[in-house]
Design a protein that fits this description.
It is built from eleven helices and no strands. By secondary structure, the protein is an all-alpha fold. Helix 2 runs antiparallel to helix 4 and helix 10 packs across helix 11.
Amino acid sequence: MLSAMFAARIGWRDRTVVLLAALFFAMVLVSAYLGWSATATVNAIYAKAVPVFQAQGKPVPANPVGEMPPLSLLRNMVTYVALLGALAALVLGHQVVASDRKAGVLPLVFSRPASRIGLALGKIGALVLAVVAVLLGAGLVNVLTMLLLPGLALDGTIWLGMIEFYGVAALYMLAFGLLGAICATAFASESMALLTPVTIWLALTFIVPQVTANIGPMAALNPQSVNLEVPGGSFFAVTSALLGPLSIAESYRFLSASILEVTSGAGTTITAGGAMLSLVFANLALAGALIVAIARLDACRSGYRD
């Protein structure tokens, strides 16, 4: 636990990680304000319309705010996590390992009785702590916003749904954090160790959805695009079968949209169970790969070449 906290502290010293995290929180605050402002405006208009309907003897319609799924106010968070959250986790994962390699402390660490598996588990623990801390802060902002919004019917189901959404977001961000740590361990060049996971992130976020389901780059970030019709043809059938299990971005987007109730579930062949299994398996496989990468790292050549 102490090694995980120490590794997380080192990772947070990187200015890029801090900048991305700060930008993520800024977007969370903007999203919260926009949701509050839009809902407050609708409530104000409804309050002024009620006396008019009553004076004219017409039935008063229900408040539109009450008919809207409360969790749909978090739909912008799906995009922020997929972009800024995942990228911040990736850079943090890279820094958690790269800082040790650049400081030249690994030969000393490997000469001690402590096992390499323990070191790898400490790195994984650091990533988990960092991701949970970021999402707890974002979740607190969203909770306060929803409590301040008038006209929303909040119950235990809503709070459970919010926990489920942030759990899915944590799995998604952690996967990219582990990917960054793996590349930081396996590559001899620091530039390649950072460029490779960023390229994979871009491919999984924008390219794979377009190849498997003909979803454009902007639609790939929109949780409501899971309602789009699945394209026909043998090409998309083959690519979906081959790349679908690897498309954790699509799994994350589908699960998030389902939890936040911004989708009807139409236009996709993904199931909630399959999507969750894809995210869990990706994290387990990446965690195992990080343990293997650290176990195989040559202590005498642990520094970067560039």
